[in-house]
Specification:
253 residues; alpha/beta; Rossmann fold; six-stranded mixed sheet; 10 helices; 10 strands; 26% strand
Length: 253
């Protein structure tokens, strides 16, 4: 059985005013798999990630050309409800960014925003989300304490719980472990491997070993273009392009 395509881009370009950040991007992202975006700093990885839930709409002068399909529908169509899109496509950022509120309030924020008012239902969502982010056992007795009192790794898992509380279909992760120590990084990597059972995961990482460990598919970005993409084991063992091989082996530059 072939893989189901969740996202597909066709001749997608991204401009920031006169600067072209992405050039003719054609890629498919498989459903319920982990896709890693690798490449040097400034090559367009994070810019591409933000195109998938239209976060670049907040950037003055940004414009997207071409098509980005989610389940076969172009998310840049004029009648696309962007609020609904961002509920379907959640995001976790590079640095943990919990709200200055309690652990419970952080996770309940999204469901409340979307109309959930029943306290018992919210309690159930909070517990399910914290369990899903592998942090429930650490915080279940202190849900009313400030989220900012948690360690960095715990804060990042809390942010993942907050993202999945609204039951998205896709989870975008922009270097989610770059600010964490090795132990916390290992916890997040373990979590990512379990998240793909429920979500489509797209992750930006500078860490080649991390991409090799946790992703099913990998795309190598360079100067705003995708040089090659495919199954992770093939990208890392038999790259078709010498630039990919140079980057993976550390000879790039």
């Amino acid at each position: 059985m072939g893989k189901t395509i969740k996202f597909q881009t066709s001749a997608m370009n991204l401009w920031y005013d006169r600067f072209q950040a992405l050039k003719a991007i054609d890629i498919t992202i498989s459903e319920r798999a982990v896709t890693a975006f690798i490449g040097p700093s400034g090559c367009g990885k994070s810019s591409f990630l933000r195109c998938l839930n239209r976060m670049n709409d907040f950037v003055p002068g940004a414009r997207v050309e071409g098509e980005v399909f989610l389940d076969g529908r172009n998310i840049y169509d004029s009648d696309q409800d962007v609020i609904t899109l961002r509920r379907r496509v959640g995001m976790v950022f590079q640095r943990p960014n919990p709200f200055p509120a309690s652990i419970w309030d952080n996770v309940a924020y999204g469901p409340r925003l979307h109309g959930v008012r029943n306290r018992r239902e919210l309690d159930e969502i909070v517990e399910k989300s914290l369990r899903g982010a592998a942090i429930w056992d650490e915080v279940k007795d202190k849900l009313r304490t400030p989220a900012l009192a948690l360690s960095g790794g715990q804060q990042q898992r809390l942010c993942i719980a907050r993202a999945i509380a609204v039951e998205p279909e896709v989870l975008l992760m922009d270097e989610p472990t770059s600010a964490l120590d090795p132990m916390a990084t290992a916890r997040i990597e373990e979590l990512v491997r379990t998240l793909k059972e429920r979500f489509t995961v797209a992750i930006v990482t500078h860490n080649m070993q991390q991409a090799a460990r946790i992703s099913d598919e990998t795309a190598f970005f360079l100067d705003g273009e995708i040089i090659e993409s495919g199954p992770t084991h093939l990208i890392f063992t038999s790259p078709r392009d010498g630039r990919t091989e140079d980057y993976i082996t550390g000879r790039f530059g």
